[in-house]
Design a protein that fits this description.
With 88 residues, the chain is of the alpha+beta class. It has one domain. It contains three helices and five strands. It is globular, with a radius of gyration of 12 Å.
Length: 88
């Protein structure tokens, strides 16, 4: 799939430091993802678990996350998909 057509929703911070977001594209639908704080710090460069740092790291890594989302999708289970460091 052409990655330029995959979009990411604005993430939300839940459970104090976990990011939830969705990836979507025409003909592909929506897929919900979860990024834990340790993954965001270690693989996306957040300095700490603060919402500001987590959201900044997400924004700076959008292209990387788009590619990881495309590789990580599974058949429609309707559940949020955990994204790990190996996915990135």
């Amino acid at each position: 799939m052409d990655l330029s057509h995959i979009n990411l929703t604005t993430p939300i911070v839940v459970s104090k430091s976990t990011l939830w977001f969705s990836a979507y594209a025409f003909g592909w639908g929506y897929h919900a993802f979860r990024l834990g704080p340790a993954v965001v710090r270690e693989y996306l460069g957040a300095a700490d678990d603060s919402p500001t740092q987590l959201l900044l790291a997400f924004e700076l890594s959008k292209q990387r996350l788009v590619g990881a989302a495309e590789r990580k999708i599974s058949p429609d289970s309707g559940e949020r998909i955990e994204m790990t460091g190996t996915d990135l």
